[in-house]
Amino acid sequence: MLNIALFGPPGAGKGTQSKLLIKKYNLTYISTGDILRREINENSELGRQARSIIEKGGLVSDEIIVQIIENNISKNLHTNGILFDGFPRTVVQAYILEGLLFKLGVSLTCMLSLEVPREELMHRMLERGRIEGRSDDTKEVIENRFREYDAKTIPVAEFYKEKDKYFPINGVGTIDDVFMRLTQAIDKTLEKVWFNLVISGPPGAGKGTQGKLLAEKFNLYYISTGSLLRNEISDDTEIGRRARPFLEKGEIVPDDIAIPLIEREIKLHQDVNGYIFKGFPRSIVQVYILDGLLRRLGSSVSYAVEIQVPTLELIKRLSARSKTDSARSYDETTDLIVNRLEEHEAKAAHVSDFYIKQGKHAEVDGIGSESEVFDRLVAAVEYAYRNIR
Which of 50, 159, 177, 271 is spaced 20 to 30 A from 256 at the CA atom? Predict the structure, then answer.
């Protein structure tokens, strides 16, 4: 997941840039200031508690802030990550954020700090106060906010500098100029973040062939549950003996058999740019399992590509494969082939829907030569690299 804290003094332009960043990277927006102002306008209990503090330019208590953040994160779990605007503002809040994200099984990717001279900040905020009529944008309140910032917030920068997650960004210039600097810093940071790809499609769609080619192209580690299970069967291990009856019928292997194999592969190969998962997840339950596995490592599924091939073509391909050295036991008869296709169709839609709702899904035409299909897949993955990660 891409979790960003947008940092900087009052008037640095965090709100404006946040709106652009959440659109580009599909992030959940957490702005403590906006949420508190909404609570105040609605005259809620939380708003009444915060009103007098905000109008004096002070900082709302951490207890109130934590409630706000937890409530909003819990309502927005299906995005690529979270953008925090106005949090953390103190070292204590930085520790709170570490705990909140740990609870979600993730961590902060980076803190981006908009650097703007004090004189420019004062001019911006007084102008904003004149136009919007905000009570917290008077000269007296602004100066108090600067004092609060200098005393409590600047040490937060040191907190993240020690973690090598702090990036100062020149905040002077046009909105587009500043946005370009922010995205360049984020994209550079993402080079150190795993890119995890799910490649799906019905039996016979070519997932194995294309998955290996994509792994080589993007320097990802290829994990095929089918291959892992066949190796276990060949070695006559306990897992292999348990899995054999399911594979022979072309059925989905129980999760308690597949999960340890996937975990083992991830643990043995962590010095990579990410993973390609082929043959998993094949059900909505497995979607949640894979999400849990990756979140434990501070990561998540980045994108899912689904290879689409007409049913008649699939039957022809699988029947032809049954007459080659690459034949599977579940290719032997038309009944077994049809059973596999029907099982895939019954469960695959739920997996696709999950990633579609997250904006992490692409359908790719699987008809054509190997290189033609590969070129389509590469285009989809490169799009995800640029716009989804």
Answer: 271
